[in-house]
Amino acid sequence: MSQKPKPSHGFAVCPDCAEPLESGDRFCGACGHDLTAVPAAAAGPDRPTVAIGTPVAWPDAPPREPGSLSTMTQHPGDLPGTDSGGRDLPTMPVRTDEPLPPGGNTTAGSGDFELPPPDPRTAVRAAPAPAQAPAPAAAPAAAAAASAASATTAVVCVACRAGRVDTDGYCENCGHAQPRERDHMEREFAGVAAVSDRGLRHHRNEDAFAVSATTLPDGSPATVAIVCDGVSSATRPDEASAAAAEAAGASLLAALPRGTHPQQAMHEAIVAAAEAVNSLAEEPGQDGAEHDPHRHRNAPACTIVGSVVADGLLVVGWVGDSRAYWVPDDRATAPVRLTEDDSWAAQMVAAGLMSEAEAYADERAHAITGWLGADSYELEPHTAAFKPDRSGVVVVCTDGLWNYAEGADDMARVVPADAADRPLHGAQVLVGHALDGGGHDNITVALVPFTVTPQGAGSA
Questions:
Q1: DSSP string, 60-126
Q2: What is the Cα–Cα distance from 146 to 148, expressed in whole angstroms?
Q3: Is residue 353 a contact partner of residue 367, using CB atoms and an 8 Å limit?
Q4: Residue 26 DSSP SS3
C-alpha cells in the first residue's frame, strides 16, 4: 500500500500569524490557515506570449435611413485584417441590390414572399441549357454525360415561375416542393381513358391505373382498364398499386391477342397482379419465414378492379372494394353496379344482419376483407361477364370516387352524357366531382365506352 507524498506549500512561516511551518503542513498549527489555497496573483505588468499591436480602428457602420427595417451591417470589404502570414484577407463583393423574384413581395408588406400555391398542371419547361464546351479527349464518358445533361430541359418552378427545379424536387429559387408525377395522371387510348389525382387530404397518390387497347386474333378491337388502390395501413401502398396495375395490364395485353377468353384472361391478370404485389414483401437476406412467422405482417397491399370490352362482351374482375359501374347512354335505362365489395359492410348485408344503409353508415364499413398482398388470407379473384344490349360506358374506379357517388343512380347522375364520345373529359369531370365533394382520398377513374352496333347496320 502506497501513500501519496504531502504537497509542499512553499511557506517558511504562516502568512497570517508568522508561526514557523514545516514543508508538509497543510494547515497552520497556531491559527489554522489553509496553506494549500492558491495565493492571489501579484499585481504586475501584463506579459502576453504574443505581443498585441495597436488596436484596429473599425469603421463606422453605414447609416440607416429613417423608417427602414433593414439592419446596419458591415461587409467583408469594410473590415481590415490580415491572415496568419501577414497578407491582406481576401474580400468578396456582396450584392444588396438583387431584384426580388417575380411575384415576390418586400419586407415592407407582410414580411414574406407571397407566392401562389403550386398547381400540378402548371409546370412548364425551360429552354434547353446552352451547350457546354467540348470536354478533353481523355474523358469521353464525362463528355457524353455532360452533353446529355445539357440537352435535358429543366423544369421551372410552378410557384414562383422563375427558379429551376433541382434534382431533389425543390425550387432553387423559392424552395417550394414541386408536384410529383403521380399527384395527377391522365391517359387516353382509342376507346378508353383514365384520370388519377392525389386528392386534397393525402400527402401522396397511392392509386394507380393501366389503360390500353389491343386486338383479338380476328382483328377486332379490345380495350383494357385496370384500377388499383393501395391499402394505406400497409407499407409501401403506392408501390403495391403500381406493381399490380402494371402486371395486370401486361398480362391482359399478352393473353387477349392469343385468343384467351376475356374472362379467363381477367382471372389470370388478377393472379399476375397478386404475384407482383407479393414479390414486394420479399426482403433479401431474410429467407425462411419459419424463424419469423409474422415477417409479412403489414406487407404491401392494394385492391384491384378491371374491365375488358371485347367481341361484344363486357368482362369485369376485382378483389377488394374498388368498383365497376355500368351507365347506359340512354339514361332512361337503369344503371347497374357490376361488382360486390370485399368489405365488412358487404358481408353484413349479404348475411342479412344489416341493411345496406346501416352497414355503410357504420365506421367499420370500409374495412376490406379481400386484397392483393403477401398477408392476404386467400386470393379469390372475382370475375363476371356481361353482354349489354345497348351502348353505354363502364366506370372503373376507386372508393375515392364512389364515396361521393355510391349508388348506381348517383354515379349515373354525375357521369357526363357524352362520356362515351369523350371518355377523357368524362373522367376529368368525375375526378372534379370528388374534389368538389372534399377529396378526402386518392381518386382514380377509368371510362371504357361500350358500343352496340344496331342489327343490320352496314348491310347492303
A1: PPPP--TT--PPP---GGGS--B-TTSPBPP-------PPPPTT---TTTTSS---PPP-TT--EEP
A2: 5
A3: no
A4: coil
Q: Give per-residue pLDDT as tens, 185-243.
A: 999 988 899 999 999 999 899 999 999 999 999 999 999 999 999 999 999 999 999 99
Alpha-carbon gap, residue 157 to 102, rounded angstroms? 12
As given in the structure block, the three cell numbers for residue 356 are: 345496406
Cα separation, 175 vs 436, in Å, equals 29
- Grid cell of 172 as nine digits: 432553387
- Please give the average pLDDT of every successive group of 10 residues along the chain, which has 460 residues: 50 76 74 66 47 48 55 50 56 43 42 45 46 47 46 67 82 82 92 95 95 95 97 94 98 97 97 97 54 61 97 96 97 95 90 88 88 91 95 97 95 96 97 96 97 63
Contacts (Cβ under 8 Å, ≥6 apart) of 387: 312, 313, 314
Contact status, residue 226 vs residue 315, Cβ threshold 8 Å: no
- Contact present, 196 and 228 (Cβ < 8 Å): no
Q: If you average pLDDT over every residue of the chain, what do you get?
A: 78
Strand-pairing partners, residue 213, are 223
Of the candidates 420, 404, 402, the residue with the CA atom closest to the CA atom of residue 331: 420
Which three cell numbers mark 434? 370528388
